[in-house]
Amino acid sequence: MAENTTEVLVGGCVLAAAAGFLFYAGQITGYSSATEAYTLNASFRSVEGVSVGTDIRMAGVKIGTVVDLALNQETFRADAVFAVVDGVTVPDDSSAEIASEGLLGGNYVDIVPGGSPFNFDPGATIVDTQGAVSLVTLLAKFAAGSGSDE
């Protein structure tokens, strides 16, 4: 009987630890937060390195996530939809650019706020955008241009 009690206690501890890990993973990824959000739209030349779930940041602080990406068949640009946390206002002259966390880090969408006293309404489109810059393209341009000063 003592062995069964020990096994049940150890099993309960394992289940509690697993539940704790799931809760922690949900908090880190943002899936467990039921915060209200509103959407903003933007169109980019390139969204390389960005996918659904990518962070939207302003001044380095996460304010939302990318919730949809689609190719616009008329403009051949990538249309993105962002979910921005309620309570965070974005001036209507702000720009959106795809930034990199570093050479080995991932990409995120950086909202650069403008100075307008008016804010985007839910569902509005950010017109001023800058797409992703490919590191390989930059290195190729640097290598090709390095001998031109002779």
Please give the count of helices.
2
Task: Give start-end ranges of low-pLDDT stretches.
Answer: none
Widest beta sheet: strand line-up: 7-1-4-3-2-6-5-8
Helix and strand composition category: alpha/beta
> What is the terminal separation in angstroms?
87 Å
Radius of gyration: 22 Å
**How many independent structural domains?**
2
The coarse overall form would be elongated
- Order of secondary-structure elements: HEEEEEEEEH
How many beta-strand runs?
8
Strand content: 25-35%
Q: Report the average pLDDT across residues.
A: 85
* Biggest β-sheet description: 8 strands, mixed
- Portion in helices: 25-40%
Secondary-structure blueprint:
Elements: H1 2-29, E1 37-44, E2 55-58, E3 61-71, E4 78-85, E5 95-100, E6 107-112, E7 125-126, E8 128-130, H2 135-145
Parallel strand pairs: 1-7, 2-6, 5-8
Antiparallel strand pairs: 1-4, 2-3, 3-4, 5-6
Characterise the protein shown here.
This protein is an alpha/beta fold and 150 residues long. The chain has two domains: 1-34; 37-134. 26% of the residues lie in helices and 32% in strands. The protein has two helices and eight strands. The protein has helices spanning 2-29, 135-145; strands at residues 37-44, 55-58, 61-71, 78-85, 95-100, 107-112, 125-126, 128-130. The protein has an eight-stranded mixed sheet with strand order 7-1-4-3-2-6-5-8, with no helix packed on it. A hairpin with a 6-residue loop joins β3 and β4 (78-85). The chain starts with a helix and ends in a 5-residue tail after the last helix. 15% of the residues are buried. The model has no long low-confidence stretch (mean pLDDT 85).
